[in-house]
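Per reviewer request, we include the raw input and output of the structure prediction for the construct analysed in the revised manuscript.
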Amino acid sequence: MPKIINVSLTGRSGSGKGTQADLLMERFKGMFYLSTGDLFRDLAKQDTATSHKIQKVLAEGGLPFDDIAVALMIHNIAYNVKEEQGILFDGVTRRVSEAEIVDGFMDWLGRRDNTFHILIDVSRDEAYDRLSKRRICKECGNLIPWVGEFKDLKVCDKCKGELMTRPDDIPDAINNRLDYFEEKVVQTIDYYEKQGRLIKINGEQSIEDVFKDILKALGEK
């Protein structure tokens, strides 16, 4: 396994990307974490014309102008990632044009060949069920997935705060995100699969088994 690895996680909303990203960050200390969702939510907190538009789009369960994601990602990598750091992409990339740009940038950095593209594969029905039932902590913002032992939690497992439904986890918003995956992201998955660079993991297993399969694909025991 290369000394420095980069991992790109993709999958339907609710597939468990965030949970697996947390486990990977714990396993591979010092990786730089990039999530387009986090980048957009952070931008939405600003007081600009762009942020106000993003606030409206996110509230409706939509997705912001795609090319902003590429600009934010490249900016963050360029300004933050050290030579000895791996990169963990959470939910990147969503469109073929986006994938081509990120591929080109990673190739320029000499990182393309040690970047693993992992699809956490769950059905649409499974994703909808998880998204409609998952919860978020009112106090610390910890997202509680609707899988395994997390289903039994009555309070946040990190701060004991009250749990609630995430504001954008309503039926129309959930279906908008799942529709986008099928309309756009599947094409990107095909792009990597045709190149023989896609690693497909069964996401309908336990969290532990999904993680074991990911580590195996990365050459880790």
